[in-house]
Specification:
It is built from 26 helices and 14 strands. By secondary structure, it is an alpha+beta fold. It folds into 4 domains: 1-51 and 228-366, no CATH class; 61-225, no CATH class; 370-483 and 647-780, no CATH class; 489-641, no CATH class. It has a 6-stranded mixed sheet. Strands 11-9-8-13-7-14 form a 6-stranded antiparallel sheet. Helix 1 crosses helix 8 and helix 6 (231-257) runs antiparallel to helix 15 (451-482). The protein is elongated and about 105 Å long.
Length: 780
């Protein structure tokens, strides 16, 4: 029977070959998308692993004995590192595996150039056995550096006064290899220094090994460097993509394997009538499906290879993928090659149950039973699941939260597919009882007789609408709650340097007049304001928030050059200020500080602000001057850059949501196109008979359009409402946020998606004309 099944699949003339080719092509597209998704998830993991070495120092196992990992975080409360080890013995305790390792001075910081993040690591070896970062053959010495290819190009193209000078204009002695680069576009530089220089820094530590495992979450400067995603973020990407895309892809592949199912049922029913056993019928049906699915699976790998160059250009995590990371494992290949044809065989056997039970059930065209209201149970159960999380609260672990939320969303998605036929049946009855027009009656009758098939064709778009609505609702609330406040252009162009904690061991930080003079000489700089640390907490009862944690003094003349920081009271020489320097406080009049302006230079310094005109040259030259004077710690940043950095994580999730929505819409559109074409082809005989009786072709087109519009619109309303409800339940449970307006752009995109769906149906009209001629009724 296996040979017979294979022969019937290809020996039925042109129709059989076309049917086999269409099914194979549809399966190939679905498999190609599935492989693209799997490879993308693998690439996210590989990219995350490539930036694990930057977590060195934050992992206590990499830090030399006596060191405080917190000292490397660049924060205001960073502890000073321990002094260098005694020259008569290496760091490390006997038996801890580090006794033969010479500690490496290590200082990680996040640099910036023209809005691009640069990962900077300052290193100084204490001996020949100091640990070596990945991707380099040797550590750079003093006034030397090794850099990523993208960083080398940037250094070569940028004026030295805007970039290279901040590293001391060192010599390029090598290129960082791909093993240390999350992306081909990663900007990373390792700058050599001396142990004496880094030992005096408030941000350098000694390490005895380089981290090899990506962190569970980023910390300190690793967050600011932003060269990858931590394990929790990777788990989130895996879960969201799996739930949001796997189900629509499987629905699409299932729709592809059911092409020409009605014609197949007729042929196999005839075999039953002439004596074929149920087992033989199942085998023949399975062979045809397996052959098409196997051919489509093989071609799907070619589709994946065609899509691969395009995906490599998408910065899904904020950076593009290394080509070596974006690929498939042997296990991935084997599973897809085996499971897709196997799933097609199972689906085919299940679809043949009416033929197996009673072949006359096909030949007599018996009407299936109406969908039961019990089909709503899974959908309601999923919403109740998410509602319970909003009431009881989410699990405490990241894994538990992902499992609980994504599990609930998966149940809702499955519930939409299961409940769809019932919704279609309800819509058809409402349609049929409210009009006597022939077009509406024909469409309503068809929907009422077979709501399962009618909804199956639009189920992909319904899932896409649900996914898109839930993702958009959640991200929109994130941005509304966590997005930065708007500031003026003048305030956004202020370059801020944080100096509290910048000091060497046992010293204070001061800003020399020469540094201020150098900054004021830069074209585009209109003033510099230095914030000196106040020894008090401010006036009694004053509740002002502290600048970097405490109030500060600013001279009147300097404060006047940075208008967005506020102004002095009339007649005051020094202002006592307390605010976040990224805020716009142009309308604030600060209290007068009872301090002699001449004594300010002797006080410790919290930071400084440089008012620029926003030009690249002014910002980057000023940043270079400040970094050269105060290397390490938090890089100088403009207010606009700080806002962009604070929303970078939101931007990553926004990008993820956009990719998911786009792919799900493509999948849904393809599923609709395949199902629509298959439906027209399977119904060519009844349509031909209707045309012979005088029904105009335009009426048949309207019938097909209505048969799609009713389940599509009914499902769309439920999907959008469920998406909004899912987003709100997640926000309630996890963040205590409320939904905000999704904006006209979202609703316009929903409308466009529905119109495009109807346009896909219209694309089948030429096929309708070709297959409904008189010869079809005569030959069939």
């Amino acid at each position: 029977m296996i040979r017979l099944g294979l022969r019937l699949a290809v020996a039925g003339g042109r129709e059989a070959l076309v049917r086999l080719g269409v099914i194979a092509a549809a399966v190939a597209l679905g498999v190609g998308l599935l492989l693209t998704m799997v490879a993308g998830l693998t690439a996210v993991t590989g990219q995350n692993q490539r930036y694990a070495w930057l977590e060195t120092g934050f992992d206590p196992t990499t830090v030399a004995a006596g060191q405080d990992p917190g000292g490397a975080n660049g924060g205001a409360d960073a502890g000073a590192p321990a002094p260098p080890p005694a020259p008569d013995g290496p760091a490390g305790a006997p038996g801890d595996g580090t006794a033969d390792v010479d500690p490496l001075w290590w200082q990680l910081s996040a640099d910036t150039f023209e809005g691009q993040t640069i990962g900077r690591v300052d290193v100084a070896a204490t001996g020949a056995n100091s640990p070596l970062p990945p991707g380099v053959d040797a550590l750079p010495g003093p006034r030397q550096y090794v850099a990523s290819p993208a960083m080398q190009k940037l250094l070569a193209s940028a004026p030295d006064s805007e970039l290279a000078a901040r590293y001391g204009s060192p010599t390029d002695v090598g290129t960082i290899g791909d093993a240390a680069l999350p992306s081909p576009d990663s900007l990373v530089i390792i700058v050599g220094s001396t142990a004496a220089e880094l030992s005096r820094s408030g941000h350098a530590i000694q390490v005895t090994s380089i981290a090899t495992e990506s962190p569970g979450q980023c910390s300190g400067e690793t967050c600011a460097v932003g060269l990858g995603m931590n394990k929790n973020a990777v788990a989130l990407v895996f879960g969201v993509v799996a739930v949001a895309l796997v189900i629509p892809i499987l629905v699409f592949i299932g729709a592809a394997t059911r092409l020409s199912a009605t014609r197949r049922e007729q042929r196999l029913a005839a075999m039953r009538l002439v004596g074929a056993t149920p087992r033989q019928v199942r085998t023949v049906a399975a062979m045809e499906s397996v052959l098409a699915a196997a051919a489509g699976t093989v071609v799907g790998f070619a589709v994946f290879l065609a899509l691969r160059p395009l995906v490599l250009r998408i910065p899904l995590t904020g950076s593009t993928f290394q080509p070596a990371d974006y690929g498939l494992s042997v296990l991935d290949v084997v599973l897809v090659l085996v499971l897709v044809p196997l799933a097609a065989a199972v689906a085919s056997r299940l679809a043949m149950r009416r033929v197996v039970v009673s072949p006359l059930g096909v030949t007599r065209r018996t009407t299936p039973a109406d969908p039961s209201p019990w089909r709503l149970v899974p959908f309601v159960a999923g919403l109740v699941w998410l509602g319970g999380l909003a009431i009881v609260g989410p699990p405490t672990t990241t894994g538990g939260q992902l499992l609980s939320y994504l599990g609930g969303v998966a149940v809702v998605m499955v519930g939409l597919v299961v409940a769809g036929p019932w919704l279609t049946r309800a819509g058809s009855r409402l349609l049929a009882v409210r009009t006597g027009r022939p077009t509406v009656l024909l469409a309503g009758r068809r929907l009422s007789d077979d709501p399962r098939t009618a909804f199956r064709s639009v189920s992909g778009l319904i899932l896409a609408l649900f996914v898109g609505t839930a993702a958009t609702g959640t991200i929109t609330a994130f941005v509304a709650e966590r997005g930065p406040a708007a500031v003026s252009t003048q305030a956004g162009n202020v370059l801020v340097k944080h100096l509290d904690g910048q000091r060497e061991v046992g010293t204070t930080v001061t800003v020399p007049d020469s540094l201020v003079t150098d900054l004021e000489r830069v074209r585009g700089v209109s003033g510099v304001a230095v914030v000196h640390a106040s020894p008090t907490d401010g006036p009694a009862g004053w509740n002002g928030a502290g600048l970097w944690g405490r109030p500060g003094y600013v001279a009147r003349d300097e404060l006047a050059t940075v208008p967005s920081w506020g102004r002095c009271a009339p007649g005051a020489d020094v202002a006592l200020i307390a605010f976040d320097p990224t805020d716009d406080r142009a309308d604030v009049v600060w209290p007068t500080a009872d301090v002699d302006p001449a004594s300010l230079d002797g006080l410790d310094t919290l930071g400084l602000g440089v008012q620029t005109d926003g030009s690249t040259a002014a910002i980057e030259q000023s940043r270079t001057i400040v970094e050269a004077a105060y290397p390490g710690g938090m890089t100088p940043f403009t207010v606009h850059e700080d806002q962009a950095s604070s929303t970078s994580e939101l931007a990553q999730y926004q990008r993820l949501a956009e990719v998911i929505v786009a792919i799900s819409l493509v999948i849904g559109g393809c599923s609709l196109a395949v199902s629509a074409a298959g439906t027209v082809n399977e119904r060519k005989r009844p349509f031909s008979l209707l045309r012979l009786t005088g029904v105009p072709l335009g009426m048949l087109r309207r019938v097909i359009t209505l048969e799609t519009a009713v389940p599509l619109l009914a499902g769309a309303v439920v999907a959008v409402a469920a998406g909004l409800g899912t987003a709100q339940l997640f926000l309630d449970a996890q963040l205590d946020y409320g939904l905000t307006s999704l904006g006209g752009a979202y609703w316009a995109s929903v409308g466009i998606g529905l119109v495009v769906g109807l346009g896909v149906i219209a694309s089948t009209f030429p096929l309708l004309r070709r297959v409904t001629g008189p010869e079809t009724a005569r030959n069939d």
